[in-house]
């Protein structure tokens, strides 16, 4: 059984490596700066009881990696070193970058030297970056990396120090004679298929610039691009290299081919479309843009001049990577399908910078929608939200359902809401119905489908298309007619553009008054804590504001009709809150065989999640 020493295990790349490694048998030694943070990460990943994982407190920038004697002795038992440590922060100052990367390279190669001297180091794997100029054929063994002051002069300290660390680690591997694999990934985005991208640098800089309308031109035009790689593809290849019985020294550039990846024009068009904003049409030469950024515009716009280094017109040699991918039985690197999910995820992170993920839920992808998933056994509960809401708003209901039944719960974000991309879904509600139908039809078994408000109509229509997959259908306060509103909601529905404009300017007070006036809640005490503030913040995202504007239009002008006869072959229950003021239960549904009246307002699943879960479980 191999022993692997890993730096950067709590980072974006390292965490994915760790997740995948735990499916194997290796003993894992993790160098971490904070035991508390690392323990929280293991709890988050469900690995807190894994006896093969050992946390070693230390610091890359310190001699002997800052470890105590006991931890250092454990580290010296390693057969393999995976060095993925260091922050993704292109604006690092010179001193911090030198300590992290160059001093870190010195200290970790000292560890490698001691291992190799006493027992033989099987393999050293170093994660660098796709713009590193070094490879097996150009290593100057006499160069003193600590004195190369002219190297990449004028470029940011982050890349200079990272690449000097690359050179130093290559030099030491050659001198000492252990195998070294240098992994040069493209800009790393979230793992497929969900594209959850915790690291907001890289493509996140572009997404944030577009959403703030600070990207009026296409950097470099169609000849330039940003090479990408999904985090899971990168981790899978690193682990394959780590498990090689007879490793050899080589460099692996892990990214998609230029011909298959989006160029800058296509990428910015995709970002703009997903954010429902106009895309830039004019291009600007990279030297001119770099000059503007360095002159201070980058600081004002929040676009670091150093980030321009990730935009290139180069093609890269990927023959060795493709050879290893064939060896693994994997396809070539391709990220097109996941990019819209990445954009939506990043947009949500910028909209909610202090967001805390609910405990015991994971971010997944179901069809073309983002999902919050609570694992369990049995038939899944699948919940669809309505106007102004998202998957996160139904977490309390999901928790109560899981506690009562032990079954899995899927909370879906409709396209454009929460973390779900638009994906070209311009036809609301038909596109929503089709997207949900695809999820239901491809589910591994039957489901219990719950829809609230507008989401209940989407659920009802999708269920009709996939009746054999539905165990039960629950419609919570379905909007069965156009809302009876002459107030704010009426003006919000006037046109999509006007709706979006007005929604983005809603204040918490105006929204609260509207909700109370129209029976969304019967009294202020029913409104969940921070719910109104969360909606207002959601609507600051042009993507989410546009999605709500489209649903408002659909509610008033394109609402699909349903009748009791539609559910003759589906086990359907309608739960209706009698304190709703904008909607009433149409006459044909008064005698519906499975109708449950409750003394609540429109948003009762959020106001009374425990009571709603109890009712759903009983019916």
From TrEMBL:
In terms of Pfam families, this protein maps to: Abhydrolase_6, NAD_binding_4
* GO CC list: cytoplasm
**Domain named Thioester reductase (TE): residues:** 6-238
AB hydrolase-1 domain ranges (all copies):
382-614
Q: What is this protein called?
A: NAD-binding protein
Supply the source organism for this entry. Answer: Aneurinibacillus aneurinilyticus ATCC 12856
Q: Which GO terms describe its molecular function?
A: aldehyde dehydrogenase (NAD+) activity
């Amino acid at each position: 059984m191999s022993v692997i020493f890993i730096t950067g295990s709590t980072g974006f790349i390292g965490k994915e490596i760790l997740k995948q490694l735990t499916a194997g048998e290796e003993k894992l030694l993790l160098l971490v700066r904070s035991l508390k943070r690392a323990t929280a990460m293991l709890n988050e990943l469900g690995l807190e009881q894994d006896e093969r994982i050992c946390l070693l407190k230390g610091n890359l920038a310190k001699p002997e990696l800052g470890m105590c004697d006991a931890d250092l002795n454990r580290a010296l038992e390693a057969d393999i070193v995976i060095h993925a440590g260091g922050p993704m922060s292109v604006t690092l100052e010179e001193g911090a970058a030198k300590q992290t990367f160059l001093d870190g390279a010195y200290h970790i190669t000292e560890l490698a030297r001691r291992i190799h001297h006493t027992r033989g180091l099987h393999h050293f794997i170093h994660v660098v970056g796709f713009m590193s100029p070094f490879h097996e054929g150009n290593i100057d063994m006499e160069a003193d990396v600590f004195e190369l002051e002219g190297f990449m002069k004028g470029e940011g300290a982050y890349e200079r120090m990272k690449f000097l660390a690359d050179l130093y680690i290559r030099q030491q591997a050659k001198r000492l004679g252990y195998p070294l694999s240098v992994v040069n990934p493209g800009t790393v985005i979230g793992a497929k298929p969900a594209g959850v991208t915790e690291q907001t640098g890289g493509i996140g800089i572009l997404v944030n610039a577009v959403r703030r309308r600070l990207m009026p031109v296409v950097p470099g035009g169609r000849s330039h691009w940003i090479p990408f790689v999904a985090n899971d593809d990168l981790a899978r290849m690193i682990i394959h290299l780590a498990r090689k019985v007879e490793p050899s020294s080589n460099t692996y550039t892990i990214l998609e081919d230029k011909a298959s990846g989006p160029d800058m024009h296509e990428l910015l068009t995709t970002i703009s479309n997903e954010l429902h904003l106009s895309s830039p049409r004019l291009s600007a030469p990279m030297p001119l843009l770099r000059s503007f950024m360095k002159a201070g515009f980058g600081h004002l716009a929040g676009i670091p001049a150093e980030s321009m280094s990730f935009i290139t017109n180069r093609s890269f040699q990927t023959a060795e990577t493709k050879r290893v991918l064939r060896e693994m039985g994997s396809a070539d690197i391709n990220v097109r399908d996941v990019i819209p999910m990445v954009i939506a995820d990043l947009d949500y992170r910028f909209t909610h910078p202090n967001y805390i993920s609910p405990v015991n839920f994971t971010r997944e992808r179901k069809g073309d929608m983002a999902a919050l998933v609570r694992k369990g056994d049995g038939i899944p509960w699948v919940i669809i939200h309505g106007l102004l809401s998202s998957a996160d708003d139904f977490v309390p209901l999901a928790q109560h359902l899981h506690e009562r039944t032990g079954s899995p719960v899927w909370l879906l974000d409709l396209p454009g809401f929460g973390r779900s991309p638009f994906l070209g879904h311009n036809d609301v509600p038909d596109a929503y119905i089709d997207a949900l139908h695809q999820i239901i039809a491809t589910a591994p078994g039957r489901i219990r489908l719950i829809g609230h408000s507008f989401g209940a109509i989407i659920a009802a229509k999708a269920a009709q298309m996939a009746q054999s997959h539905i165990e039960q259908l629950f419609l919570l306060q379905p909007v069965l007619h156009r809302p009876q509103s002459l107030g704010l909601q009426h003006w919000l529905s006037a046109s999509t553009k006007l709706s979006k404009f007005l929604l983005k300017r809603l204040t918490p007070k105006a929204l609260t008054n509207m909700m109370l006036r129209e029976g969304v809640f019967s009294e202020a005490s029913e409104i969940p804590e921070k719910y109104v503030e969360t909606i207002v913040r959601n609507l600051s995202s042009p993507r989410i504001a546009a999605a709500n504007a489209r649903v408002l239009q659909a509610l008033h002008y394109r609402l699909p009709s349903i009748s009791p006869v539609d559910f003759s072959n589906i086990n359907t229950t309608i739960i209706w809150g009698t304190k709703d003021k904008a909607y009433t239960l149409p006459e044909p549904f008064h005698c519906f065989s499975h109708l449950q009246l409750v003394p609540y307002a429109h948003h009762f699943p959020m106001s009374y999640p425990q009571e709603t879960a109890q009712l759903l479980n009983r019916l």
